[in-house]
C-alpha cells in the first residue's frame, strides 16, 4: 500500500468475546500487526478467488488502457477472506495511493467531504463496513460516485446554501460483511461487485505455506494440510493457527510443524477437525438442544449463546451453513441432520427438517445456489 491510512480499519462487526476466539475471523491487534507482512501485494500473488481475480484484472487493465479511473468496486463476504487485501491490491495495480476509512468512522457528511475534497486524481478510497456509513454521508456518496461532485452546505437553517464542489475522479472500493443491508441505490452505483467465498483447504494450504516461508517457520506439508483443514475456509484464521502451532512446536517440540504437532496444538486450543470452535459449538448445541433443531429466529439464538445477533450472523453462521450444519430458511435457522451427527447425537423424528420434508432424512434440502453448495449468502430454500 502506498497511501495514507486515515482511520484504522477494523474490517469487522462489533467485537465481543468472539474476537478472542482462536478461530474468530475477526482481526485482533496481534493479527493486524502480522497481517501487514503476510498480505499478498499484487493480484498475481493472491491465492484462490480465481474468478474474482480474473474479473478484477480485466476491470483494472481496461481502465489503465483507457487512461480512465476504473469503476467503483464492491467486495462482500465474511470477515478474514481478503477484502482489505484486495482493496490494497487494486491501489497497487493502479499505482495510486489509497485512503482507508470505515463506515462507523463516517458519522456525518462532513467526515466524508473532508476525505473526498482532498483526493488526488485516480486515488482509491477504501470504505470498510460500508453498510454502516451514516445516512447523510451516504447521500453525499451517491453524488460523488456518479458525478465526482459533492455539495458542501454552508450555513444553517433557511439561509443554508449548497455549494457544488468538483472532486478528482477516484475509485471507491467498498467492503461489507452484510451486502443485504446496503441500500439498492448505493449497490447500483458500483460498476463491479464481487462476492468472496470461503477458501478450499488446498488453497488454504498454499496460503499457510506461503506465510510460513515469510515468517521463517519450519512447516512440513502434512502439518500445513492439518492447519488448512481446521481454518474454517478463512485465510486470517489459517495465519493465526499457524502462529499458535508454531509456538507449540517451538516450546514442546523441535520447532518443526508436523501433522502430529499441529493436531496436538489445535486440540489444546480447542479447534476441532472442521475448524469449529466454542462459539460454533454453542450455536449448534443451542439450536439442537434448546430449540429442537429450530426453526428459531437469529436474535433468540444469539441470546441463547450470549452473543450479539450480528456476531452470530456474520461470524459463526456463514461457516456453519457452508459446512452443511445449519440452514437459513424463511422461518428461521434450522439444524441439518449433519449437526446432530457432529455433536454425536441421534436425529430426533420430530426435528424441523423431518417435519418440513416428511419422509426423507434431510435429502430434501436444497441450497438456493444449486445442488452443489450453499447459495451466495448461504441462503437455503426448503422444499416441503
Ligand atoms: P477482510 O478485509 O476480508 O476481513 P483481510 O483482507 O484483512 O480480510 O485478510 C486477512 C488476512 O488474510 C490478510 O492479512 C492476509 O494475510 C490473508 N489473506 C486474505 N486473503 C488472502 C489470499 N487470497 N491469499 C493469501 N492471503 C490472504
Quick gist of this model?
The chain has 384 residues and is of the alpha/beta class. It has helices at residues 29-38, 50-66, 83-94, 109-116, 135-147, 184-187, 201-215, 221-229, 235-252, 259-268, 278-290, 298-305, 309-322, 337-342, 352-356; strands at 73-76, 98-102, 124-128, 149-154, 161-166, 171-176, 192-195, 218-219, 256-257, 326-329, 332-335, 365-367, 380-382.
Structure write-up:
The protein is α/β, with parallel strands linked by helices. The protein has three domains: 2-195, P-loop containing nucleotide triphosphate hydrolases (Rossmann fold), CATH 3.40.50; 201-268, Helicase, Ruva Protein, domain 3; 276-384, Arc Repressor Mutant, subunit A, CATH 1.10.10. It has 15 helices and 13 strands. It has helices at 29-38, 50-66, 83-94, 109-116, 135-147, 184-187, 201-215, 221-229, 235-252, 259-268, 278-290, 298-305, 309-322, 337-342, 352-356; strands spanning 73-76, 98-102, 124-128, 149-154, 161-166, 171-176, 192-195, 218-219, 256-257, 326-329, 332-335, 365-367, 380-382. It has a five-stranded parallel beta sheet with strand order 2-3-6-1-7, with helices on one face. Strand 10 and strand 11 form a beta hairpin. The chain is globular. The chain binds adenosine-5'-diphosphate. Adenosine-5'-diphosphate (ADP) binds next to helix 1, helix 3 and helix 9.
Amino acid at each position: 500500500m502506498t497511501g495514507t491510512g486515515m482511520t484504522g480499519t477494523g474490517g469487522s462487526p462489533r467485537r465481543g468475546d468472539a474476537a478472542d476466539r482462536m478461530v474468530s475471523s475477526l482481526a485482533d491487534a496481534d493479527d493486524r500487526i502480522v497481517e501487514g507482512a503476510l498480505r499478498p501485494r499484487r493480484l498475481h500473488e493472491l491465492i484462490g478467488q480465481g474468478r474474482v481475480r480474473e474479473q478484477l484484472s480485466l476491470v483494472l487493465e481496461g481502465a489503465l488502457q483507457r487512461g480512465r479511473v476504473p469503476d467503483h468496486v464492491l467486495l462482500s463476504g465474511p470477515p478474514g477472506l481478503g477484502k482489505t487485501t484486495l482493496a490494497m491490491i487494486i491501489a497497487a495495480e493502479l499505482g495510486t495511493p489509497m485512503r482507508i476509512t470505515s463506515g462507523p468512522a463516517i458519522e456525518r457528511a462532513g467526515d466524508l467531504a473532508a476525505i473526498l475534497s482532498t483526493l488526488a486524481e485516480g486515488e482509491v478510497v477504501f470504505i470498510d463496513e460500508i453498510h454502516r456509513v451514516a445516512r447523510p454521508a451516504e447521500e453525499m456518496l451517491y453524488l460523488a460516485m456518479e458525478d465526482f461532485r459533492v455539495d458542501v452546505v454552508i450555513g444553517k437553517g433557511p439561509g443554508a446554501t449548497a455549494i457544488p464542489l468538483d472532486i478528482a475522479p477516484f475509485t471507491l472500493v467498498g467492503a461489507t460483511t452484510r451486502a443485504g443491508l446496503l441500500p439498492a441505490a448505493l449497490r447500483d452505483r458500483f460498476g463491479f461487485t464481487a462476492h468472496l467465498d470461503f477458501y478450499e483447504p488446498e488453497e488454504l494450504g498454499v496460503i499457510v505455506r506461503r506465510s510460513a516461508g515469510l515468517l521463517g517457520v519450519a512447516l512440513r506439508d502434512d502439518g500445513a494440510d492439518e492447519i488448512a483443514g481446521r481454518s474454517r475456509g478463512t485465510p486470517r484464521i489459517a495465519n493465526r493457527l499457524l502462529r499458535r502451532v508454531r509456538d507449540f512446536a517451538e516450546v514442546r517440540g523441535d520447532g518443526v510443524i508436523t501433522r502430529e504437532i499441529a493436531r496436538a496444538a489445535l486440540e489444546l486450543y480447542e479447534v476441532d477437525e472442521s475448524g469449529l470452535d466454542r462459539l460454533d459449538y454453542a450455536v449448534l448445541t443451542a439450536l439442537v438442544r434448546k430449540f429442537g433443531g429450530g426453526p428459531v429466529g437469529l436474535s433468540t439464538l444469539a441470546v441463547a449463546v450470549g452473543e450479539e445477533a450480528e456476531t452470530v450472523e456474520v461470524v459463526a453462521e456463514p461457516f456453519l451453513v457452508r459446512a452443511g450444519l445449519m440452514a437459513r430458511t424463511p422461518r428461521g435457522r434450522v439444524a441439518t441432520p449433519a449437526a446432530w451427527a457432529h455433536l454425536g447425537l441421534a436425529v430426533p423424528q420430530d426435528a424441523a427438517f423431518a417435519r418440513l420434508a416428511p419422509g426423507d432424512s434431510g435429502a430434501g434440502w436444497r441450497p438456493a445456489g444449486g445442488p452443489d453448495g450453499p447459495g451466495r449468502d448461504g441462503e437455503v430454500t426448503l422444499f416441503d
